[in-house]
Amino acid sequence: MTNRRKWTKARSTRPPDGRVRQSQVVSTFGPGSMLDLLNDAVLVGGLDFWRLKGQGEVVNEPRLLEIVEPLYHRNKWPLSKEAPFRKPPAGDEREPTESCGIQVYEFPRWFVCQNPHCRTLVRANSLERVNQEYRHRCAGVDAKPERCVPVRFVAACPRGHLSDIDWTWWMHERKPCDAPQLKLEEGVSGDFSDIEVVCSTCGKRRRLIDMTHKEQQDFCEGERPWLGLEARERCGEKQRLLVRTASNGYFAQTTSAITIPEPESLRRKVQSAWSILQSATAETLPAFRTIAQVQAALGSASNAEVLAAITAEREHTPEAVPEIRTAEWLQFLAQPQEKPGEMPRDRTEVFWARRIARPQGLPSLVERVVLARRLREVQAQVGFTRLEPLSKDLQGRYDLDVALAPMSLHRDWVPVTEMQGEGMLLVLDEPQVHAWEMSEPVLRREEVLRAGYERWKQGSGSKLPFPGVRLYLLHSLAHLVMTEVALECGYPASSIRERLYCAPHSDAVPMAGILLMTGTTGAEGTLGGLVEEGRRLGQHLARALEDARLCSNDPVCAHHEPTGRDDRDLEGAACHGCLFLPECSCERFNQYLDRALVVPTLGHEDVAFLKTPWT
Fold first, then answer.
1. Which of 82, 106, 130 is the last residue of a domain?
2. 20 to 30 Å CA-CA from 104: which of 121, 335, 336, 579?
């Protein structure tokens, strides 16, 4: 997928220096992300540097546009009305050229000599390029050119800006030095306090940990190298030290929609015969309904309903449509009971689901299980952040008041990927969920989680309200079930993803469900392993309850609360030993988790939703 800038059209054309899957370009390695190739460290170029064949492969998903369009309008970015979604370009490995694939920018431009007696810190333009590697001539007449590697540290700001550290300027604290010669000395621990930069010319030494102190941080200059070398903008944030391979160096902001069959509304049926019905009244409508075209369009709708639709069309009243996840939820719940031997009719069906008979051993807290043999999910990347991820609301929308780092200066489309796969939906019993969340112990626990959320909200700038304890329950339960199912269905945990359906009891359509799904790009589906595990969901829940009672990090994990003493203001009892999953599986970046809300946990036995094992 990722192509460098230097190729020749010779017979022995070498393959691209890097390969990335299309799905990764819309998540982990999107525009503005840092990527390590075999011999280089690079920055993935923005959409202006993507080389599409023609207009690229256009993807249609109107429901996803409902989320993406307001966000782009708020940030004053152009968005095409005809083709807003396109797939990333597919590189040609047999004949790689600059006109095919994604261009990348060499970043960072500072390198460290790997000679243990040298360790010189030097810019790339002062090095030799030998066999696709940078070489440094160390001091000494007979010294051979030594291999250099990119420096591990760069500077970033919360607005997504990224730049090289001006090591000479920082080292000498903005004071000139004649012919500076810098070296990077790293201790055995690798901690910032154990790393020093030394100038051989003036003898000055400075520890890297000084760069983490707020009073010594420089103001960001607004550099956006993934958009071009001249794409700077004003920025008033302080720059922060960032390890370029750290997980907080890039948070792709993605949103998605599942393709569901949309029933044609009465309003659309009226529009199909508008040339006749535009002049209809209460007196003339019965006569108009005798016309074959009108009769076929309106069906059995009553005259009152038809007149209301005609009035709305005349007044150009916006048609009320459910939110994106609410529409999916209603579609899942409307599926009929499964019949023996029933399968999708053909491969053109992109949504096929059935409600199954209650699995053996399933607790009463679970109302039903819906198995989906065919699912199509379209995922779009709308921007990205660094240092801190942005939070989405319960419908998957981002806060419009928070600015995202742009992926392009001139393109009017958004990169998307299509996932064809399968899934299973676990629907919790709404009355029991509401009774649980209104109990006194859970209300007290909710206040603790709310206080942590408010502290995080002050630092992040988000204006979204507290999502509620229901989200913590669903998210934690999803992670526990995913871990158990991955051991049985044949898929690794990183290939199973969650989709949370959560809405409070006070909403017109309350939701409490978990969709676990898996899929691949460029294929028609998967092999049914995840679907079949839905028939044994009772066993998986029982094992999840037993395994989650005790974490390998207890009692530290069980007693953790979002008190502000660490950077985990959005988690309760949760850690890598019990709830955390690969980030590609989690739509909330391993946040909004609390094991105590699902199973009895040390010190919090009274707030668990699943309190007793079952057979």
1. 106
2. 121
